[in-house]
Write a structure and sequence with these properties.
By secondary structure, the protein is of the alpha+beta class. The chain has one domain. The chain is built from four helices and nine strands. The strands form two sheets. A five-stranded antiparallel sheet has the order 2-3-1-9-8. Strands 4-5-6-7 form a four-stranded antiparallel sheet. Helix 3 packs across helix 4.
């Protein structure tokens, strides 16, 4: 069985470009889907002046965060309670359990430029805060929510949201300024 020259010509003119367009559309859809994905990290940190850790299995925060917090806040020591990587669709959001008593609900507001964080303690809403997403993603800025501990006088907790690639962004911005990142 032979194919007629007209069918071969129609295949070249119509079918091949149609198949190519379909593959391109599938590729564009997957790229836009990846762009809609928001990647952040969330850490729960404890601040104290006490010598010992406030609980078992708590480790120190990174030296960089320790230095940054020590320059801003009054506490001498900061301990990491939990650290989570968040990846969620920009359109929906995600609840994250940071400890048995601390949950945050993170979502991107409709315009895509604003991060909204709802903080809950033992299923009771504490507060809802908003922060521009661009400084977190583009500049490596941290979004810090803090409060005092009702059970331990003088101690505080911090929820720290940031970009998982903040180190490389900080180094890039320092290089752009002609300096070195610490």
């Amino acid at each position: 069985m032979t194919t007629s020259p007209k069918i071969v010509a129609l295949t070249r003119v119509f079918i091949r470009p149609l198949v190519v367009c379909l593959f391109l559309m599938m590729g564009i859809q997957s790229v836009t889907h990846a762009a809609d994905q928001v990647d952040l990290t969330a850490s729960l940190v404890w601040g104290t002046d006490k010598e010992s850790t406030p609980g078992p299995n708590l480790g120190p925060v990174s030296q960089k965060l320790q230095a940054k917090f020590s320059n801003i806040f009054k506490w001498k020591r900061y301990f990491l309670i939990s650290h989570k990587s968040l990846g969620f669709p920009q359109s929906s959001g995600k609840p994250i359990q940071l400890s048995p008593t601390c949950e945050i609900k993170v979502r991107i507001l409709d315009d895509g430029d604003m991060l909204e964080v709802r903080l809950q303690e033992k299923d009771q809403p504490l507060r809802t805060l908003k922060h521009p997403l661009q400084p977190i993603q583009a500049e490596g800025e941290l979004f810090v929510i803090a409060g005092d501990d009702r059970d331990s006088s003088g101690d505080a907790w911090f929820v720290v949201l940031g970009d998982p690639n903040a180190e490389s962004k900080t180094e890039e911005s320092q290089d752009d300024l002609g300096g070195k990142a610490n």
